[in-house]
């Protein structure tokens, strides 16, 4: 290799590395605004390495060479392999790698010696000493990462490798004078190659660097991650030879989140297996315990009922449900949760607000973005403001997470519904103006949201439907599961079914609770008309995975339909129900939105109507405090309606209206329901 070729090679290498390093900041700038995933990822990576060798030796062991000293050189290499990235917490992560690497170096040294030519004259001879080293190794590289933002992280760890091969090529060339040769009669000497003797098989180094995650799909399950890493090795490559190597690496990692592998039965499989499993007999060999369950009815007030079975009666009804104008997000995430119903652009023209108004309140709420999209399409002058919020526990280095959340909601309305971007304003803040309790997990979950407000009241107006209401007597059922004897278990599940179809499940781990309550109106839409029996059973899984079912028991159901009452010719009544949500956390004062609903109710109450006003709370706080708070909310509504003869009660959290494990379920439970019963024939 000539000196000019060496110079060209080094220039190309330096240009390549500089381009890679300049590329990284642009990628980081381009990708800002995403949020980190909280699941482990696996994948592959590949890095181009710029390898810097420092040296101070004249020859390799057992290899003749007249070089006064090699001082170092550089080369281009490659490292690639498999990678596993797992979050430790929102700030720290684990990066584990196994890889194969190959790298090389060209080292050149020049020497000037006085030389006597054949004609007896003396001149200076220039000798060039070239040494090329090539190496391959397999390595493991565990690192710890620190997130500066949800997607930008620093890395630090160690590289521990085993050098598989280490070879060399060397030569000495007489550059000047051009008319002279070595004593061998050639212009080169000591041109040899082979394996390097005395190589340190263990390659150890300290690695630092940075990586940025670019999501490749909306679900954030696949990432392309540009990275820059530097590995410093303080140990010599060859024993008793001063020769070290450092690696500057730049490249890409492609990782994905593996699909969840369910190692246990889902509820349908568990139900099927339990129904086919023989009932265990207490005291029989191999039977550790038996499962039992009983039930009783409970009234709207949460008291036990003496009524046998369940009576369902139909009434003509008007139902008014306000829209909760909040979209809730997962911790440190700006991705729209899957529970919010999203449609495609091709479905927009056929979308009708009449299709779901008679469904459960939670189903209606999860269509909220489509309701807003439809209403804004019909009312082209209306505008909305999206205010993104975060809770105090979220990553403060994550950039404008609240703004990203608002942008996610805006993107859906613009991209799917075709709403003009100019009609949707975005604001961002930390905690909401009226935050929930930041000291509780439920409260922090509720504060991770986007709040929606509008210039036109019709955009967020309550959903009203005229339908048939099914009233249950008693209002709910209380299930009391037990095992005998009481021992540690893995999980328990209560199944309520109708004709082999699951209606409701309750599920948790150890211990089994004394009771679980079910407000049946929650599932009124999935309890078919004409149902005669509901069945329930307890299924317990022990620590070894064994399934222990209880006896299946029956709740008898009777039903009185509108047609039944029409045929009998008796006195009937209509039942109109109005729900008021938007009570702030721990507050009983009426909001502007609630006051609008109250004003609407006033004009719908006949003089001979009976009015029942019932206040509720969610599960947050102590039972007695919630009882008082629900009563205060009910009285606030009664005062606003100006009714002196209305029945006003507060039920607190005794029989929750909705599932309190979700933030929207808790908000919808912070309500007052106004029930207006009007006699008619």
How would you briefly describe this protein structure?
Helix content is 18%, strand content 42%.
Write the layout of secondary structure elements.
Layout: H1 3-31, E1 41-57, E2 70-87, E3 92-116, E4 122-147, E5 152-176, E6 188-195, E7 202-212, E8 214-215, E9 222-232, E10 243-256, H2 267-276, E11 290-298, E12 304-305, E13 310-321, E14 326-328, H3 361-365, H4 368-378, E15 384-388, H5 401-415, E16 424-428, H6 441-447, E17 449-454, E18 463-473, E19 476-484, E20 491-498, E21 501-509, E22 516-519, E23 533-541, E24 547-549, E25 553-560, H7 562-568, E26 572-580, H8 592-602, E27 610-615, H9 623-641, E28 647-650, H10 663-669, E29 672-680
Parallel strand pairs: 13-25, 13-26, 15-16, 27-28
Antiparallel strand pairs: 1-2, 1-10, 2-3, 3-4, 4-5, 5-6, 5-7, 7-9, 8-9, 9-10, 11-12, 11-19, 13-18, 14-17, 15-17, 19-22, 20-21, 20-23, 23-24, 23-25, 26-29, 27-29
Low-confidence stretches: 1-36
Radius of gyration: 37 Å
Largest sheet: 11 strands, mixed
Determine the strand fraction and express it as a percent band. 35-45%
- CATH architecture descriptor of the largest domain: Beta Barrel
CATH topology of the largest domain: Porin
What percentage of residues falls in helices of 4 or more residues?
Answer: 10-25%
Average pLDDT, all residues: 86
Overall number of domains: 4
**How many strands?**
29
Helix-strand category: alpha+beta
Total number of helices = 10
The level 1 CATH classification of the largest domain is Mainly Beta
Distance between the termini: 107 Å
What overall form do the CA principal axes indicate?
Answer: elongated
């Amino acid at each position: 290799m000539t000196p000019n070729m060496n110079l060209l090679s080094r220039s190309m290498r330096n240009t390549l590395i500089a381009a890679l390093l300049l590329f990284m900041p642009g990628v980081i700038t381009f990708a800002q605004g995403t949020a980190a995933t909280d699941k482990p990822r696996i994948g592959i990576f590949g890095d181009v390495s710029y390898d810097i060798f420092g040296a101070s030796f004249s020859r390799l062991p057992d290899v003749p060479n007249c070089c006064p000293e090699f001082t170092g050189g550089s080369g281009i290499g490659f490292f690639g392999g498999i990678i596993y990235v797992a979050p430790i917490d929102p700030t720290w992560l684990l990066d584990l790698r196994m890889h194969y690497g190959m790298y090389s170096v060209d080292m050149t040294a020049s020497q000037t010696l006085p030389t006597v030519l054949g004609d007896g004259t003396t001149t200076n001879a220039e000798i060039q000493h070239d040494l090329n080293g090539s190496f391959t190794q397999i390595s493991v590289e565990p690192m710890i990462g620190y997130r500066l933002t949800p997607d930008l992280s620093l890395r630090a760890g160690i590289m521990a490798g085993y050098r598989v091969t280490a070879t060399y090529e060397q030569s000495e060339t007489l550059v000047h004078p051009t008319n002279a040769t070595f004593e061998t009669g050639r212009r080169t000497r000591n041109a040899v190659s082979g394996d390097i003797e005395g190589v340190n098989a263990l390659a150890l180094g300290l690695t630092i660097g940075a990586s940025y995650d670019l999501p490749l799909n909306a679900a954030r399950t696949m990432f392309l991650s540009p990275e820059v890493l530097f590995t410093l090795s303080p140990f010599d490559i060859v024993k008793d030879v001063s020769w070290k190597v450092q690696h500057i690496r730049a490249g890409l990692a492609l990782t994905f989140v593996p699909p969840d592998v369910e190692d246990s039965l889902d509820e349908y499989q568990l139900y099927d297996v339990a129904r086919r499993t023989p009932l265990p007999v207490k005291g029989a060999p191999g039977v550790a315990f038996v499962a039992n369950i009983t039930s009783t009815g409970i009234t709207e007030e949460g008291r036990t009922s003496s009524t046998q079975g369940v009576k369902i009666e139909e009434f003509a009804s008007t139902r008014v449900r306000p829209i909760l104008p909040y979209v809730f997000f997962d911790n440190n995430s700006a991705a729209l949760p899957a529970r919010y119903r999203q449609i495609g652009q091709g479905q927009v023209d056929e979308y009708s607000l009449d299709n779901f108004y008679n469904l459960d309140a939670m189903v209606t709420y999860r269509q909220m973005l489509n309701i807003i999209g439809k209403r804004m399409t019909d009312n082209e002058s209306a505008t909305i403001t999206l205010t993104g919020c975060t809770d105090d526990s979220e990553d403060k280095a994550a950039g404008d997470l609240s703004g990203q959340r608002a942008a996610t909601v805006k993107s859906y309305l613009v991209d799917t519904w075709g709403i003009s971007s100019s009609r949707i304003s975005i604001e961002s803040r930390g905690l909401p103006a009226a935050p929930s309790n930041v000291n509780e997990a439920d409260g922090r979950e509720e504060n991770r949201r986007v709040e929606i407000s509008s210039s036109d009241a019709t955009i967020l107006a309550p959903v009203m439907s005229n339908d048939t209401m099914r009233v249950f007597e008693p209002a709910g059922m209380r299930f009391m599961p037990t095992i005998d004897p009481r021992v540690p278990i893995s999980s328990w599940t209560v199944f309520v079914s109708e004709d082999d179809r699951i209606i409701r499940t309750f599920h948790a781990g150890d211990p089994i609770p004394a009771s679980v309550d079910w407000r049946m109106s929650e599932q009124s839409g999935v309890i078919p008309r004409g149902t005669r029996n509901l069945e329930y059973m307890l299924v317990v899984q022990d620590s070894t995975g064994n399934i222990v079912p209880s006896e299946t028991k029956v709740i008898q159901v009777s039903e009185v339909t509108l047609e039944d009452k029409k045929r009998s010719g008796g006195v009937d009544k209509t039942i109109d129900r109005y729900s008021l949500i938007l009570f702030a956390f721990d507050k009983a004062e009426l909001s502007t939105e609630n006051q609008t609903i109250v004003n609407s109710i006033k004009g719908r109450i006949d003089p001979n109507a009976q009015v029942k006003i019932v206040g509720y709370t969610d599960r947050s706080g102590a039972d007695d405090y919630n009882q008082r708070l629900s009563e205060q909310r009910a009285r606030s509504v009664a005062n606003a309606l100006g009714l002196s003869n209305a029945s006003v009660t507060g039920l607190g959290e005794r029989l929750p209206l909705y599932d309190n494990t979700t933030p929207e379920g808790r908000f919808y439970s912070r309500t007052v329901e106004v029930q207006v019963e009007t006699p008619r024939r």
